[in-house]
Amino acid sequence: MNKSRQFRTGFLYLALAALCALPSVGQDAPDVGPRPPQPLKAMESHIGHVTGHAKDAKMDYRRYCAGCHGDLGDGNGENAVWLDPKPRDFTAATFKCRSTVTGMLPTDQDLFDTIGRGLDNSNMPIWNTFSDLQRANLVAYIKTFSPRWDKEKAGDPIKIPAEPAVTIESISHGKALFTKLECWKCHGPEGKGDGPSAATLTDSKDQPIRPYNFAGGGDDSRFKCGSTNADVYKIFITGVDGTPMPSFADVIQPNDAWDLVHFLRTLQVKRHSKENDVLKAAGGKIPPYVEKQAEAPASQPETRAAGGGN
Amino acid sequence: MRARGLFASILVTVVAPSLMFAAGTISGKVTYTGTPVKQKPIDMSKEPSCAKQHATPVNTETVVTGAGNTLDNVVVYISEGADDANAPAQAVTFTQKGCQYLPHVVALHTGQELQVANADQTSHNIHPLAKVNREWNKSQPPGSPNISEKFDAPEFISVKCNIHPWMHGWFVVLKTNHYSISKDDGAFTLPNLPPGKYKVTAWHEDYGTQEQDVTITGSETKSIDFSFKAKAY
User: Fold this and answer.
1) Which chain B residue shows the shortest CA-CA distance from A195?
2) Omega cis (within 30) before A244
3) A89-99 pLDDT, tens per residue?
4) Inter-chain CB proximity A244 and B144 less than 8 Å
5) CB atoms within 10 A of CB B46
6) Do A181 and B134 touch (CB under 8 A)?
7) Looking at this predicted complex, what is its ipTM?
8) How many whole angstroms separate alpha carbon A274 and alpha carbon B55?
9) pLDDT value of position B8
10) Which of A254, B15, B110, B160 is least surrounded, with the fewest CB atoms within 10 Å of its CB?
11) Which of B129, B136, B163 lies nearest to residue A102, judging by beta carbons?
12) What is the pLDDT of residue B232?
Protein backbone atom coordinates (compact mmCIF):
# COMPACT_ATOMS: atom_id res chain seq x y z
CA MET A 1 0.00 0.00 0.00
CA ASN A 2 2.58 2.46 1.15
CA LYS A 3 4.98 1.24 -1.45
CA SER A 4 2.49 1.53 -4.24
CA ARG A 5 1.63 5.05 -3.12
CA GLN A 6 5.29 5.94 -3.12
CA PHE A 7 5.56 4.48 -6.58
CA ARG A 8 2.58 6.40 -7.72
CA THR A 9 3.88 9.67 -6.29
CA GLY A 10 7.22 9.01 -7.87
CA PHE A 11 5.56 8.40 -11.18
CA LEU A 12 3.60 11.60 -10.82
CA TYR A 13 6.78 13.58 -10.20
CA LEU A 14 8.37 11.98 -13.16
CA ALA A 15 5.44 12.82 -15.38
CA LEU A 16 5.42 16.37 -14.07
CA ALA A 17 9.12 16.74 -14.66
CA ALA A 18 8.68 15.44 -18.18
CA LEU A 19 5.86 17.91 -18.79
CA CYS A 20 7.90 20.82 -17.49
CA ALA A 21 10.86 19.72 -19.51
CA LEU A 22 8.92 19.78 -22.75
CA PRO A 23 8.56 23.50 -23.32
CA SER A 24 12.04 24.19 -21.99
CA VAL A 25 13.47 21.94 -24.65
CA GLY A 26 12.17 24.39 -27.20
CA GLN A 27 13.54 27.42 -25.37
CA ASP A 28 16.91 26.35 -24.07
CA ALA A 29 18.02 24.17 -26.89
CA PRO A 30 17.32 26.14 -30.04
CA ASP A 31 18.84 23.41 -32.15
CA VAL A 32 15.82 21.19 -31.65
CA GLY A 33 12.88 21.44 -34.03
CA PRO A 34 12.50 22.69 -37.56
CA ARG A 35 15.25 24.94 -38.79
CA PRO A 36 15.84 26.80 -42.01
CA PRO A 37 17.25 24.12 -44.32
CA GLN A 38 20.19 26.18 -45.50
CA PRO A 39 22.67 28.32 -43.65
CA LEU A 40 21.42 31.86 -43.34
CA LYS A 41 21.85 33.89 -46.51
CA ALA A 42 23.96 37.01 -46.29
CA MET A 43 21.17 39.54 -46.83
CA GLU A 44 21.24 43.27 -46.25
CA SER A 45 18.65 45.98 -45.94
CA HIS A 46 19.14 49.69 -46.46
CA ILE A 47 16.95 52.16 -44.65
CA GLY A 48 18.28 55.67 -44.91
CA HIS A 49 21.78 55.54 -43.47
CA VAL A 50 21.11 52.33 -41.53
CA THR A 51 22.28 49.03 -42.99
CA GLY A 52 20.68 45.89 -41.59
CA HIS A 53 22.25 42.43 -41.67
CA ALA A 54 20.23 39.25 -41.57
CA LYS A 55 22.75 37.45 -39.36
CA ASP A 56 22.30 40.06 -36.65
CA ALA A 57 18.53 39.50 -36.48
CA LYS A 58 18.72 35.77 -35.78
CA MET A 59 18.04 36.03 -32.06
CA ASP A 60 15.42 38.76 -32.35
CA TYR A 61 13.56 36.83 -35.03
CA ARG A 62 13.51 33.65 -32.98
CA ARG A 63 12.45 35.46 -29.85
CA TYR A 64 9.87 37.93 -31.18
CA CYS A 65 8.73 36.77 -34.63
CA ALA A 66 9.04 32.99 -34.96
CA GLY A 67 6.17 32.33 -32.54
CA CYS A 68 3.72 33.47 -35.21
CA HIS A 69 5.68 33.63 -38.48
CA GLY A 70 7.49 30.33 -37.83
CA ASP A 71 11.15 29.34 -37.90
CA LEU A 72 10.87 28.85 -41.64
CA GLY A 73 9.10 32.18 -42.16
CA ASP A 74 6.12 30.39 -43.69
CA GLY A 75 3.57 31.89 -41.31
CA ASN A 76 3.12 28.58 -39.50
CA GLY A 77 4.49 29.48 -36.10
CA GLU A 78 3.00 27.67 -33.13
CA ASN A 79 0.55 30.52 -32.47
CA ALA A 80 -0.63 30.72 -36.07
CA VAL A 81 -3.60 28.36 -35.64
CA TRP A 82 -5.15 30.76 -33.15
CA LEU A 83 -4.74 33.87 -35.26
CA ASP A 84 -7.03 35.60 -37.72
CA PRO A 85 -5.83 37.03 -40.03
CA LYS A 86 -2.97 34.56 -40.36
CA PRO A 87 0.63 35.69 -39.92
CA ARG A 88 2.40 36.69 -43.11
CA ASP A 89 4.09 33.89 -45.06
CA PHE A 90 7.47 35.39 -45.92
CA THR A 91 8.28 32.57 -48.32
CA ALA A 92 5.68 33.96 -50.77
CA ALA A 93 7.17 37.48 -50.57
CA THR A 94 3.71 38.97 -51.03
CA PHE A 95 3.19 41.99 -48.80
CA LYS A 96 0.19 44.14 -48.02
CA CYS A 97 1.78 47.49 -47.24
CA ARG A 98 3.98 48.65 -50.07
CA SER A 99 4.85 51.86 -51.84
CA THR A 100 5.44 49.81 -55.02
CA VAL A 101 2.99 48.79 -57.75
CA THR A 102 0.98 45.60 -57.40
CA GLY A 103 3.03 42.43 -57.81
CA MET A 104 6.35 44.11 -57.06
CA LEU A 105 8.48 43.54 -54.00
CA PRO A 106 8.18 46.20 -51.32
CA THR A 107 11.08 48.50 -50.53
CA ASP A 108 13.18 47.92 -47.41
CA GLN A 109 11.64 51.09 -46.05
CA ASP A 110 8.13 49.64 -46.54
CA LEU A 111 8.98 46.55 -44.46
CA PHE A 112 10.77 48.69 -41.88
CA ASP A 113 7.69 50.91 -41.55
CA THR A 114 5.36 47.92 -41.25
CA ILE A 115 7.35 46.47 -38.34
CA GLY A 116 7.31 49.81 -36.57
CA ARG A 117 3.64 50.51 -37.28
CA GLY A 118 2.17 47.06 -36.73
CA LEU A 119 -0.93 45.99 -38.62
CA ASP A 120 -4.22 47.32 -37.37
CA ASN A 121 -7.01 44.78 -36.90
CA SER A 122 -4.52 41.94 -36.68
CA ASN A 123 -2.25 40.41 -34.06
CA MET A 124 0.84 42.13 -35.42
CA PRO A 125 1.76 44.63 -32.71
CA ILE A 126 3.62 47.90 -32.98
CA TRP A 127 7.27 46.99 -32.52
CA ASN A 128 8.37 50.44 -31.43
CA THR A 129 10.61 49.04 -28.72
CA PHE A 130 13.16 47.96 -31.33
CA SER A 131 15.98 50.25 -32.28
CA ASP A 132 16.21 51.30 -35.93
CA LEU A 133 19.12 48.91 -36.37
CA GLN A 134 17.17 45.99 -34.90
CA ARG A 135 14.30 46.67 -37.27
CA ALA A 136 16.66 47.02 -40.23
CA ASN A 137 18.28 43.70 -39.31
CA LEU A 138 14.87 42.05 -39.14
CA VAL A 139 13.98 43.44 -42.58
CA ALA A 140 17.12 41.80 -43.95
CA TYR A 141 16.23 38.56 -42.16
CA ILE A 142 12.70 38.49 -43.60
CA LYS A 143 14.22 38.78 -47.06
CA THR A 144 16.14 35.52 -46.63
CA PHE A 145 12.95 33.46 -46.78
CA SER A 146 12.08 33.91 -50.46
CA PRO A 147 14.39 33.49 -53.47
CA ARG A 148 12.56 36.41 -55.07
CA TRP A 149 14.81 38.76 -53.13
CA ASP A 150 17.86 37.28 -54.86
CA LYS A 151 16.41 37.54 -58.35
CA GLU A 152 14.26 40.67 -58.30
CA LYS A 153 14.74 44.23 -57.23
CA ALA A 154 12.14 46.02 -55.17
CA GLY A 155 9.83 48.20 -57.23
CA ASP A 156 10.19 51.96 -57.33
CA PRO A 157 8.00 53.83 -54.87
CA ILE A 158 4.97 55.34 -56.58
CA LYS A 159 4.89 59.10 -56.95
CA ILE A 160 2.32 60.84 -54.81
CA PRO A 161 1.45 64.32 -56.08
CA ALA A 162 0.87 67.14 -53.59
CA GLU A 163 -2.50 66.96 -51.93
CA PRO A 164 -4.99 69.57 -53.13
CA ALA A 165 -7.16 71.47 -50.69
CA VAL A 166 -10.10 69.67 -49.14
CA THR A 167 -13.33 71.16 -50.50
CA ILE A 168 -16.89 69.97 -50.50
CA GLU A 169 -16.54 69.62 -54.27
CA SER A 170 -13.58 67.27 -53.97
CA ILE A 171 -15.50 65.21 -51.41
CA SER A 172 -18.48 65.17 -53.75
CA HIS A 173 -16.34 64.04 -56.67
CA GLY A 174 -14.73 61.40 -54.44
CA LYS A 175 -18.15 60.05 -53.60
CA ALA A 176 -19.00 59.81 -57.30
CA LEU A 177 -15.76 57.86 -57.84
CA PHE A 178 -16.55 55.59 -54.91
CA THR A 179 -19.74 54.68 -56.75
CA LYS A 180 -18.22 54.54 -60.23
CA LEU A 181 -15.20 52.41 -59.28
CA GLU A 182 -17.56 50.16 -57.31
CA CYS A 183 -15.63 50.39 -54.06
CA TRP A 184 -19.02 49.83 -52.40
CA LYS A 185 -19.26 46.30 -53.81
CA CYS A 186 -17.02 45.21 -50.95
CA HIS A 187 -16.78 48.19 -48.59
CA GLY A 188 -20.52 48.90 -48.61
CA PRO A 189 -22.36 52.09 -49.63
CA GLU A 190 -21.49 53.72 -46.29
CA GLY A 191 -18.06 52.15 -46.00
CA LYS A 192 -19.12 49.78 -43.27
CA GLY A 193 -17.47 46.79 -44.91
CA ASP A 194 -20.86 45.29 -45.74
CA GLY A 195 -21.06 45.45 -49.53
CA PRO A 196 -22.75 42.70 -51.58
CA SER A 197 -19.42 40.90 -52.20
CA ALA A 198 -18.12 41.30 -48.64
CA ALA A 199 -19.25 37.95 -47.28
CA THR A 200 -17.51 35.87 -49.95
CA LEU A 201 -14.08 37.48 -49.84
CA THR A 202 -11.01 35.32 -49.28
CA ASP A 203 -7.34 36.16 -49.25
CA SER A 204 -4.74 34.45 -51.45
CA LYS A 205 -4.49 31.58 -48.96
CA ASP A 206 -8.26 30.99 -49.14
CA GLN A 207 -8.82 32.41 -45.67
CA PRO A 208 -11.97 34.52 -45.23
CA ILE A 209 -11.13 38.20 -45.04
CA ARG A 210 -13.21 41.27 -44.23
CA PRO A 211 -13.14 44.49 -46.24
CA TYR A 212 -12.09 47.54 -44.25
CA ASN A 213 -14.90 49.07 -42.22
CA PHE A 214 -14.33 52.81 -42.47
CA ALA A 215 -17.09 53.66 -40.04
CA GLY A 216 -16.05 51.15 -37.40
CA GLY A 217 -13.24 52.98 -35.63
CA GLY A 218 -13.30 55.93 -33.27
CA ASP A 219 -11.29 59.12 -33.37
CA ASP A 220 -8.09 57.06 -33.42
CA SER A 221 -9.18 54.80 -36.28
CA ARG A 222 -6.30 53.84 -38.52
CA PHE A 223 -5.80 52.10 -41.81
CA LYS A 224 -3.72 48.96 -42.08
CA CYS A 225 -0.92 50.63 -43.93
CA GLY A 226 -0.68 53.97 -42.15
CA SER A 227 -2.84 56.82 -40.96
CA THR A 228 -2.05 59.80 -43.16
CA ASN A 229 -3.98 60.84 -46.27
CA ALA A 230 -0.95 59.91 -48.36
CA ASP A 231 -1.11 56.39 -46.88
CA VAL A 232 -4.74 56.08 -47.96
CA TYR A 233 -3.82 57.35 -51.42
CA LYS A 234 -1.09 54.71 -51.58
CA ILE A 235 -3.43 51.85 -50.65
CA PHE A 236 -5.68 52.05 -53.67
CA ILE A 237 -2.91 52.87 -56.09
CA THR A 238 -0.70 49.95 -55.00
CA GLY A 239 -3.48 47.57 -53.97
CA VAL A 240 -3.13 45.37 -50.90
CA ASP A 241 -1.36 42.34 -52.35
CA GLY A 242 -2.44 38.94 -51.09
CA THR A 243 -5.96 40.27 -50.45
CA PRO A 244 -8.99 41.00 -52.67
CA MET A 245 -8.12 44.73 -52.71
CA PRO A 246 -6.88 45.47 -56.25
CA SER A 247 -4.70 48.22 -57.58
CA PHE A 248 -6.47 51.16 -59.22
CA ALA A 249 -3.25 52.61 -60.61
CA ASP A 250 -4.28 52.26 -64.25
CA VAL A 251 -7.84 53.46 -63.85
CA ILE A 252 -7.66 56.59 -61.73
CA GLN A 253 -6.03 59.95 -62.32
CA PRO A 254 -3.85 61.39 -59.51
CA ASN A 255 -6.19 64.30 -58.72
CA ASP A 256 -9.22 62.05 -58.83
CA ALA A 257 -7.46 59.76 -56.39
CA TRP A 258 -7.07 62.63 -53.95
CA ASP A 259 -10.79 63.39 -54.23
CA LEU A 260 -11.49 59.78 -53.36
CA VAL A 261 -9.21 60.05 -50.31
CA HIS A 262 -11.14 63.10 -49.14
CA PHE A 263 -14.43 61.26 -49.46
CA LEU A 264 -13.09 58.14 -47.69
CA ARG A 265 -12.18 60.30 -44.69
CA THR A 266 -15.80 61.34 -44.33
CA LEU A 267 -16.75 57.67 -44.05
CA GLN A 268 -14.70 57.57 -40.86
CA VAL A 269 -17.59 59.29 -39.16
CA LYS A 270 -16.18 59.28 -35.64
CA ARG A 271 -12.73 60.45 -36.57
CA HIS A 272 -11.87 64.11 -36.33
CA SER A 273 -10.55 65.25 -39.71
CA LYS A 274 -10.44 68.31 -41.90
CA GLU A 275 -12.68 66.42 -44.33
CA ASN A 276 -15.35 65.98 -41.68
CA ASP A 277 -14.99 69.66 -40.75
CA VAL A 278 -15.52 70.70 -44.35
CA LEU A 279 -18.51 68.40 -44.58
CA LYS A 280 -19.98 69.83 -41.37
CA ALA A 281 -19.49 73.39 -42.62
CA ALA A 282 -21.34 72.44 -45.80
CA GLY A 283 -24.34 71.38 -43.74
CA GLY A 284 -23.36 67.72 -43.29
CA LYS A 285 -24.57 66.70 -46.71
CA ILE A 286 -22.49 65.78 -49.72
CA PRO A 287 -23.97 67.50 -52.80
CA PRO A 288 -24.35 65.35 -55.92
CA TYR A 289 -21.34 65.55 -58.19
CA VAL A 290 -21.83 67.48 -61.41
CA GLU A 291 -19.87 66.10 -64.33
CA LYS A 292 -17.46 68.76 -65.60
CA GLN A 293 -17.59 68.57 -69.38
CA ALA A 294 -21.17 67.47 -69.84
CA GLU A 295 -22.94 69.71 -67.37
CA ALA A 296 -20.78 72.76 -66.92
CA PRO A 297 -21.47 75.62 -69.30
CA ALA A 298 -20.40 79.13 -68.38
CA SER A 299 -23.12 79.39 -65.76
CA GLN A 300 -21.35 76.98 -63.38
CA PRO A 301 -17.74 78.07 -63.29
CA GLU A 302 -17.29 77.24 -59.59
CA THR A 303 -18.21 73.59 -59.87
CA ARG A 304 -15.99 73.43 -62.85
CA ALA A 305 -12.98 74.79 -61.08
CA ALA A 306 -13.25 72.73 -57.96
CA GLY A 307 -14.79 69.55 -59.24
CA GLY A 308 -11.59 67.59 -59.54
CA GLY A 309 -9.78 69.17 -62.50
CA ASN A 310 -6.41 68.11 -63.73
CA MET B 1 31.87 23.37 -112.06
CA ARG B 2 28.95 25.56 -112.76
CA ALA B 3 26.62 22.59 -113.19
CA ARG B 4 27.79 21.22 -109.90
CA GLY B 5 27.13 24.57 -108.26
CA LEU B 6 23.68 24.65 -109.75
CA PHE B 7 23.03 21.11 -108.60
CA ALA B 8 24.17 22.04 -105.10
CA SER B 9 21.92 25.06 -105.00
CA ILE B 10 18.97 22.98 -106.19
CA LEU B 11 19.79 20.49 -103.46
CA VAL B 12 19.82 23.26 -100.86
CA THR B 13 16.66 24.95 -102.04
CA VAL B 14 14.56 21.87 -102.71
CA VAL B 15 15.78 19.07 -100.52
CA ALA B 16 16.91 20.88 -97.39
CA PRO B 17 13.62 22.60 -96.59
CA SER B 18 11.72 19.37 -97.07
CA LEU B 19 14.12 17.74 -94.60
CA MET B 20 13.84 20.64 -92.20
CA PHE B 21 10.09 20.70 -92.40
CA ALA B 22 9.55 16.97 -92.24
CA ALA B 23 7.14 17.51 -89.40
CA GLY B 24 4.82 15.14 -87.65
CA THR B 25 1.64 15.67 -85.75
CA ILE B 26 0.39 14.28 -82.48
CA SER B 27 -3.35 14.26 -82.17
CA GLY B 28 -6.06 12.51 -80.24
CA LYS B 29 -8.91 12.85 -77.82
CA VAL B 30 -9.35 13.46 -74.11
CA THR B 31 -12.09 11.52 -72.38
CA TYR B 32 -13.09 10.61 -68.85
CA THR B 33 -14.35 7.51 -67.11
CA GLY B 34 -16.78 7.47 -64.20
CA THR B 35 -19.24 10.16 -63.24
CA PRO B 36 -18.01 13.74 -62.96
CA VAL B 37 -19.36 15.87 -60.15
CA LYS B 38 -22.39 17.86 -61.25
CA GLN B 39 -21.60 21.50 -61.99
CA LYS B 40 -23.69 24.02 -60.09
CA PRO B 41 -25.73 26.82 -61.65
CA ILE B 42 -24.25 30.21 -60.76
CA ASP B 43 -26.47 32.72 -59.01
CA MET B 44 -25.56 36.09 -60.53
CA SER B 45 -28.48 37.96 -58.99
CA LYS B 46 -26.04 40.22 -57.11
CA GLU B 47 -24.78 41.43 -60.48
CA PRO B 48 -27.90 42.14 -62.56
CA SER B 49 -25.93 43.53 -65.52
CA CYS B 50 -24.37 40.07 -65.89
CA ALA B 51 -27.38 37.99 -64.90
CA LYS B 52 -29.49 39.46 -67.70
CA GLN B 53 -26.89 38.35 -70.28
CA HIS B 54 -27.73 34.73 -69.62
CA ALA B 55 -31.14 33.34 -70.57
CA THR B 56 -30.55 30.39 -68.27
CA PRO B 57 -28.06 30.38 -65.40
CA VAL B 58 -24.57 29.34 -66.47
CA ASN B 59 -22.85 26.53 -64.65
CA THR B 60 -19.51 26.45 -62.89
CA GLU B 61 -16.75 25.24 -65.22
CA THR B 62 -14.50 23.12 -63.04
CA VAL B 63 -15.37 20.06 -65.13
CA VAL B 64 -16.87 20.64 -68.59
CA THR B 65 -17.73 17.63 -70.72
CA GLY B 66 -19.04 16.89 -74.20
CA ALA B 67 -21.05 14.10 -75.78
CA GLY B 68 -19.29 10.73 -75.68
CA ASN B 69 -17.48 11.29 -72.39
CA THR B 70 -15.17 13.89 -73.89
CA LEU B 71 -13.42 16.36 -71.61
CA ASP B 72 -13.14 20.12 -72.28
CA ASN B 73 -10.51 22.56 -71.10
CA VAL B 74 -7.64 20.10 -71.02
CA VAL B 75 -4.31 21.63 -71.95
CA VAL B 76 -2.28 19.11 -73.94
CA TYR B 77 1.30 20.26 -74.51
CA ILE B 78 4.81 19.10 -75.28
CA SER B 79 6.54 19.14 -71.91
CA GLU B 80 9.84 17.62 -73.08
CA GLY B 81 11.60 17.31 -76.40
CA ALA B 82 10.50 20.45 -78.20
CA ASP B 83 12.77 23.46 -78.28
CA ASP B 84 11.73 26.19 -75.87
CA ALA B 85 10.68 28.32 -78.80
CA ASN B 86 10.38 32.07 -78.41
CA ALA B 87 7.16 33.70 -77.38
CA PRO B 88 4.91 34.59 -80.33
CA ALA B 89 4.64 38.29 -81.04
CA GLN B 90 0.85 38.32 -81.00
CA ALA B 91 -0.97 38.62 -77.70
CA VAL B 92 -3.36 36.14 -76.17
CA THR B 93 -6.70 37.63 -75.11
CA PHE B 94 -8.72 36.81 -72.03
CA THR B 95 -12.13 38.45 -71.88
CA GLN B 96 -14.52 39.04 -69.02
CA LYS B 97 -18.05 38.89 -70.36
CA GLY B 98 -21.29 38.16 -68.59
CA CYS B 99 -19.22 37.73 -65.42
CA GLN B 100 -17.49 34.75 -66.98
CA TYR B 101 -13.98 34.24 -68.27
CA LEU B 102 -13.74 33.64 -72.02
CA PRO B 103 -12.01 31.30 -72.42
CA HIS B 104 -12.06 29.53 -69.08
CA VAL B 105 -8.49 28.34 -69.68
CA VAL B 106 -5.99 30.40 -71.62
CA ALA B 107 -2.51 29.09 -72.49
CA LEU B 108 0.45 31.24 -73.41
CA HIS B 109 4.21 31.17 -73.69
CA THR B 110 6.47 32.64 -71.01
CA GLY B 111 7.06 36.26 -71.93
CA GLN B 112 4.08 36.35 -74.32
CA GLU B 113 1.73 39.28 -73.97
CA LEU B 114 -1.59 38.62 -72.29
CA GLN B 115 -4.41 41.10 -72.90
CA VAL B 116 -7.21 41.13 -70.37
CA ALA B 117 -10.41 42.78 -71.62
CA ASN B 118 -13.54 43.79 -69.75
CA ALA B 119 -16.65 43.63 -71.95
CA ASP B 120 -19.02 44.01 -69.00
CA GLN B 121 -20.89 46.96 -67.54
CA THR B 122 -19.42 46.24 -64.13
CA SER B 123 -15.97 46.49 -62.56
CA HIS B 124 -13.90 43.34 -62.31
CA ASN B 125 -10.67 42.76 -60.49
CA ILE B 126 -8.23 40.41 -62.16
CA HIS B 127 -6.34 38.52 -59.51
CA PRO B 128 -3.96 35.79 -60.71
CA LEU B 129 -3.02 33.80 -57.60
CA ALA B 130 0.49 33.14 -58.85
CA LYS B 131 2.99 31.39 -56.61
CA VAL B 132 6.01 31.17 -58.89
CA ASN B 133 5.28 34.34 -60.85
CA ARG B 134 4.39 37.64 -59.24
CA GLU B 135 0.95 37.79 -57.72
CA TRP B 136 -0.84 40.98 -58.74
CA ASN B 137 -4.37 42.25 -58.50
CA LYS B 138 -5.80 44.99 -60.72
CA SER B 139 -9.15 46.69 -60.94
CA GLN B 140 -10.74 47.05 -64.38
CA PRO B 141 -13.87 49.22 -64.46
CA PRO B 142 -16.16 49.05 -67.50
CA GLY B 143 -14.79 50.82 -70.54
CA SER B 144 -11.20 50.87 -69.33
CA PRO B 145 -8.39 49.81 -71.67
CA ASN B 146 -7.13 46.24 -71.78
CA ILE B 147 -4.63 45.21 -69.15
CA SER B 148 -1.38 43.98 -70.68
CA GLU B 149 0.77 41.58 -68.68
CA LYS B 150 3.47 38.94 -69.07
CA PHE B 151 4.59 35.99 -66.99
CA ASP B 152 8.23 34.99 -66.74
CA ALA B 153 8.02 31.43 -65.42
CA PRO B 154 5.96 28.39 -66.43
CA GLU B 155 3.05 27.96 -64.04
CA PHE B 156 -0.61 26.96 -63.86
CA ILE B 157 -2.06 30.13 -62.38
CA SER B 158 -5.52 30.15 -60.86
CA VAL B 159 -7.28 33.44 -61.66
CA LYS B 160 -10.21 34.93 -59.86
CA CYS B 161 -12.34 38.01 -59.48
CA ASN B 162 -12.88 38.81 -55.82
CA ILE B 163 -15.91 40.99 -56.54
CA HIS B 164 -17.67 38.11 -58.30
CA PRO B 165 -16.46 35.04 -56.43
CA TRP B 166 -17.90 32.59 -58.95
CA MET B 167 -15.53 33.84 -61.63
CA HIS B 168 -12.62 31.48 -61.89
CA GLY B 169 -10.21 30.70 -64.69
CA TRP B 170 -6.65 29.69 -65.50
CA PHE B 171 -3.57 31.26 -67.04
CA VAL B 172 -1.47 28.33 -68.20
CA VAL B 173 2.05 29.63 -68.78
CA LEU B 174 4.19 27.20 -70.78
CA LYS B 175 7.73 27.09 -72.11
CA THR B 176 6.53 25.87 -75.47
CA ASN B 177 4.26 26.97 -78.31
CA HIS B 178 3.20 23.35 -78.89
CA TYR B 179 -0.06 23.19 -76.99
CA SER B 180 -3.71 22.53 -77.68
CA ILE B 181 -6.75 23.08 -75.48
CA SER B 182 -9.57 20.60 -75.86
CA LYS B 183 -13.09 21.82 -76.58
CA ASP B 184 -16.44 20.03 -76.52
CA ASP B 185 -15.22 17.20 -78.74
CA GLY B 186 -12.19 16.55 -76.49
CA ALA B 187 -9.88 16.71 -79.51
CA PHE B 188 -6.35 18.06 -79.53
CA THR B 189 -3.74 18.50 -82.28
CA LEU B 190 -0.06 19.27 -81.89
CA PRO B 191 1.28 19.90 -85.42
CA ASN B 192 4.72 20.93 -86.73
CA LEU B 193 6.79 18.54 -84.64
CA PRO B 194 10.18 17.68 -86.18
CA PRO B 195 11.33 14.09 -85.76
CA GLY B 196 12.29 13.35 -82.18
CA LYS B 197 11.22 12.00 -78.84
CA TYR B 198 8.54 13.93 -77.00
CA LYS B 199 6.79 13.89 -73.69
CA VAL B 200 3.16 14.91 -74.05
CA THR B 201 1.40 16.17 -70.93
CA ALA B 202 -2.33 16.62 -70.49
CA TRP B 203 -3.45 18.89 -67.67
CA HIS B 204 -6.93 19.29 -66.26
CA GLU B 205 -7.66 21.75 -63.46
CA ASP B 206 -9.47 19.19 -61.30
CA TYR B 207 -8.20 15.83 -62.53
CA GLY B 208 -4.48 16.59 -62.55
CA THR B 209 -1.89 15.62 -65.17
CA GLN B 210 -1.04 12.63 -67.33
CA GLU B 211 1.99 12.02 -69.51
CA GLN B 212 2.80 9.92 -72.55
CA ASP B 213 6.00 9.43 -74.51
CA VAL B 214 5.70 9.76 -78.28
CA THR B 215 8.39 9.38 -80.95
CA ILE B 216 7.97 11.17 -84.26
CA THR B 217 10.06 9.78 -87.11
CA GLY B 218 8.89 11.76 -90.14
CA SER B 219 5.84 13.37 -91.63
CA GLU B 220 3.44 11.21 -89.75
CA THR B 221 0.45 11.68 -87.49
CA LYS B 222 0.65 9.79 -84.24
CA SER B 223 -2.60 9.23 -82.47
CA ILE B 224 -2.70 9.14 -78.68
CA ASP B 225 -5.60 9.48 -76.28
CA PHE B 226 -5.88 10.53 -72.68
CA SER B 227 -8.45 9.22 -70.28
CA PHE B 228 -9.01 10.84 -66.90
CA LYS B 229 -10.79 9.24 -64.00
CA ALA B 230 -13.63 11.51 -62.89
CA LYS B 231 -13.60 12.58 -59.27
CA ALA B 232 -16.80 11.87 -57.41
CA TYR B 233 -16.62 15.14 -55.45
Assistant:
1) B163
2) no
3) 999 999 999 99
4) no
5) 17
6) no
7) 0.83
8) 50
9) 52
10) B15
11) B136
12) 81
Q: Does A24 touch chain B (CB under 8 A)?
A: no
Q: Say how far apart CA B117 and CA B111 lie, in whole Å.
A: 19
What fold does the segment set A168-306 form as a domain? Cytochrome Bc1 Complex; Chain D, domain 2 (1.10.760)
Hey, is the C-beta of B135 within 8 angstroms of any chain A C-beta?
Answer: yes
Q: Which chain B residue's Cα is nearest to A210? A: B162
Partner residues linked to A53 by β-bridges? A44
For domain B41-229, give its CATH number from 1.10.10.60, 2.60.40.420, 2.60.40.10, 2.60.40.1190: 2.60.40.420
Contact A185 B163 (CB under 8 A): yes
Measure the CA–CA gap between B76 and B176, rounded to whole angstroms. 11
* Average pLDDT rounded to a whole number, residues A192-198: 96
Which residue ranges of chain B lie beneath pLDDT 70? 1-21
Please check whether residue A100 touches B, CB under 8 A. Answer: no
Q: How many whole angstroms separate alpha carbon A47 and alpha carbon A66?
A: 23
- Chain B interface test: which of A248, A252, A253 (most B C-beta within 10 Å): A248
pLDDT bracket for residue A217 (50, 70, 90): confident
A115-146 confidence digits (pLDDT tens): 999 998 899 999 999 999 999 999 999 999 99
Q: Do B137 and A244 touch (CB under 8 A)?
A: yes
